[in-house]
Design a protein that fits this description.
The protein is α/β, with parallel strands linked by helices and 421 residues long. The protein is built from 13 helices and 19 strands. The chain has helices at 29-39, 76-91, 93-97, 113-125, 138-145, 165-175, 286-299, 301-307, 338-344, 347-350, 376-391, 400-405, 410-417, and strands at 21-25, 44-49, 64-65, 106-108, 134-137, 153-157, 162-163, 180-182, 187-191, 196-200, 206-210, 212-215, 232-243, 254-256, 260-261, 268-272, 316-325, 331-336, 362-370. It has an eight-stranded mixed β-sheet with strand order 5-6-4-14-15-16-13-17, sandwiched between helices. The protein has a six-stranded mixed β-sheet with strand order 8-2-1-12-19-18. The chain binds flavin-adenine dinucleotide.
Length: 421
Amino acid sequence: MSQPSPAWFQIANPVARIAKTVTIIGAGIAGCTLAAALKKRGYNVTVIDRHATAGQEASGNAQGIVYPKLSHRDDLLPRINLAAIHFASHYYQSFWNSGLGSQCGVVVVPENQKIRDDCILIGERFVDQPGLVEAITREHLEALSGIPLHAEIALHFPSLGWLPPAQVCQQLLLDNQIPLLQADVAELQYRESENSWQLLDDQQQTVAISETLVIANAFDCKQFIQTRYLPLRKLRGQITQLPATAQSSKIKKVICGEGYITPATNGSHSCGATYNKDLFTTELREQDHRANIAQMAATDSGLAAALGEPDLQQLTGRANFRCTTSDYLPISGPVPDIPAMLEDYAALRRDAKTVIETPGRYLPNLFVNCGMGSRGLSYAPLTAELLACQIDNQAPPLEPVLCQAMHPVRFLIRDLKRNRI
Ligand SMILES: Cc1cc2nc3c(=O)[nH]c(=O)nc-3n(C[C@H](O)[C@H](O)[C@H](O)COP(=O)(O)OP(=O)(O)OC[C@H]3O[C@@H](n4cnc5c(N)ncnc54)[C@H](O)[C@@H]3O)c2cc1C
């Protein structure tokens, strides 16, 4: 039998909305998928971004992979990932059909013995779902991937692939006639008399006023006092565009392992990505190109042979920042009223098991959708759908326990229970 939901997930103080109008800060994949999901429900949506065009920051790489993170275990992360890739593979169908990116399939090559064992167990667990994932042995890998790979076993996800994220963002806004307003939002103030959020720039000029507001600006939501508490990290990554060789041009699938490589498009492969924690530059670094090439070689010696020895001086690429969370899950839902929550749930500090029946207090009609980590293309369509359901008072298409695992309040409750806040 399922446990009753803890009271902090219920909203004690909902403020009735008059207009079906929503403003979203951030025109990356998180903001644009949400904008489209709300527009489809009849909302009047405006997206605000500091750039004039959508998809200019993390969601701006040439090729992004819809990649999986399954497990043979029933943990929350792989369950959410499974729901996300399932949803995403349908969501992107129209983009793939229109020629954006490719649903070429994703092959995951295990990079060590443990992952190899996991692959076997995952293959066994999903044996009745070959449309989702199938375990492939070496003798079939070459025909599938296009080049000789040396892995003994790999997982193939036939319904996944790659997309150009910025074009997807732009298409979502265009197809749904959603305006993009260029402004750098510095501060959010709630105007009680009008039940509205006022968005201000750094000159204290009003950028917009909106009854319902969604913060979808990745790590930069830390600049707003309302979402500063979120334990986010800004994690730099660089991809390398590798010139295709005669052999590597035969690659038919996205191949992932230590890193990933896409099939060649316009004569080059996207290959990545690095993880640099304390580096905050978007300048390309030769050492990161080297690291990406080394990752490919570590993934499979067959890949290294196909790619040859690229001239480091000629390589191009792109660097930007992921917004990651401590539990590797995205954040999607209403923004808690921190001082009120700290007061209402103070007893958790003394005893984490205290049962408190007081529902949670939340900021009026303020939501957040961020923390997509390395898998924004996989997670964003699902979190957008969940949040749109929540804003529109519909039942979400996901079990409550999974929605709660992505809820913005989870960090606050966790810290209270650990007596850290
Ligand atoms: C090198 C690299 C490779 C990656 N590869 C993959 C991959 O293969 N597959 C995958 O799924 N994911 C990948 N990711 C992760 C993926 O890019 C992110 O998860 C995703 O793009 C996050 O989307 P977002 O909308 O949350 O953030 P963003 O795309 O960064 O969007 C946030 C937007 O908010 C705007 N903004 C910020 N602050 C303000 C403000 N104050 N006012 C107005 N606007 C503001 C920004 O301009 C930006 O457009 C990769 C990331 C990197 C860095």
